[in-house]
């Protein structure tokens, strides 16, 4: 491991920051591809400009592992047509540029690990248990994930072992859904969203980061995996467990779906949609060990 180089896109995001800490602790050399040349302790930052087709010289050289986390936040802004375009291109054109440069320079890292989304199966799949063999859907977020994974397959076509981690809701106190849900709960206003019956496929930040490391280090990992904990829960149960972890009561009625749709428009499907993923390949084909496969334990660690 010592001296092996991991090049990360989107390294300053939620997963990237924690993954960097864990990689550095293991003795890896970590580098980022970034739109701005910034100073980050212990990390070599290389500049890239996707619109101009530019990657700084030597960024890809001697790279052992490539991790692709870059992508505009799906729930950051209302989904205008322009925003939808950004959500797609920020994921696909970035991979396209890397693929082009790897081909030109004849560089072949040991593995390419790409983020992907649980929405591959659809924004709302009800009570269906989705395994890696479940076909994709045809709504917007499903389309985003399909083209994202197709771009990753272009890297695989160069003869590079490629892994795609279809990730659900990442539990962390540094960002994502939990701080947003915990804020009203801390004030005693915790309430399920919509019916509360929609399934949430979740994973603790440390477990998803360890999956990236296992996917890098273990040659048996290849293709798409449902990168989530073993037991999805309903939105109602997630809200309840957040309140328990905070030692707060949950007494408010559910936040009505129509209110969320008024506030968020089409993007409301992110919180109202039901997504039950089964981590079939992780469970059957790998020796991955979860640190936080129990929701209560995961939330206690995050909200302590």
UniProtKB/TrEMBL annotation:
Annotated NAD-dependent epimerase/dehydratase domain residues: 6-218
Signal peptide: which range, if any? Answer: none
The protein's matches in InterPro entries, at most eight in alphabetical order, are given as: DUF1731, Epimerase_deHydtase, NAD(P)-bd_dom_sf, SDR39U1
DUF1731 domain ranges (all copies): 255-302
Similarity annotation? Belongs to the NAD(P)-dependent epimerase/dehydratase family. SDR39U1 subfamily.
Q: Know the name of this protein?
A: TIGR01777 family oxidoreductase
């Amino acid at each position: 491991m010592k001296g092996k180089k991991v090049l990360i896109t989107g390294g300053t995001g939620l997963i990237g920051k924690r993954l960097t800490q864990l990689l550095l602790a293991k003795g890896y050399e970590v580098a980022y591809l970034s739109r701005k040349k910034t100073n980050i302790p212990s990390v070599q930052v290389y500049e890239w400009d996707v619109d101009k087709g530019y990657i700084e010289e030597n960024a890809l050289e001697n790279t052992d592992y490539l991790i692709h986390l870059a992508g505009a936040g799906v729930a950051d802004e209302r989904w205008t047509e322009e925003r939808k375009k950004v959500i797609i291109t920020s994921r696909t054109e970035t991979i396209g540029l890397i693929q082009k440069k790897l081909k030109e320079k004849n560089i072949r890292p040991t593995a390419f690990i790409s983020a992907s989304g649980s929405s591959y199966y659809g924004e709302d799949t009800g009570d269906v248990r989705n395994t890696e063999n479940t076909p994709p859907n045809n709504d917007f977020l499903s389309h985003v994930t399909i083209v994202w994974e197709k771009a990753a397959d272009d890297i695989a076509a160069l003869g590079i072992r490629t892994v795609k981690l279809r990730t659900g809701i990442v539990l962390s106190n540094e960002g994502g859904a939990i701080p947003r849900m915990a804020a009203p709960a801390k004030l005693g206003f915790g309430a399920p969203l919509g019916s509360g019956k929609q399934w949430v496929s979740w994973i603790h930040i440390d477990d998803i980061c360890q999956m990236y490391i296992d996917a890098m280090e273990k040659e048996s990992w290849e293709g798409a995996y449902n990168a989530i904990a073993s037991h999805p829960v309903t939105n109602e149960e997630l809200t309840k467990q957040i309140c328990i972890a905070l030692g707060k009561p949950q007494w408010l009625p559910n936040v009505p779906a129509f209110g969320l749709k008024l506030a968020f428009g089409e993007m409301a499907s992110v919180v109202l949609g039901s997504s039950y993923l089964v981590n079939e390949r992780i469970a059957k084909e790998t020796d991955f060990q979860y640190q936080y496969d129990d929701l209560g334990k995961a939330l206690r660690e995050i909200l302590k």
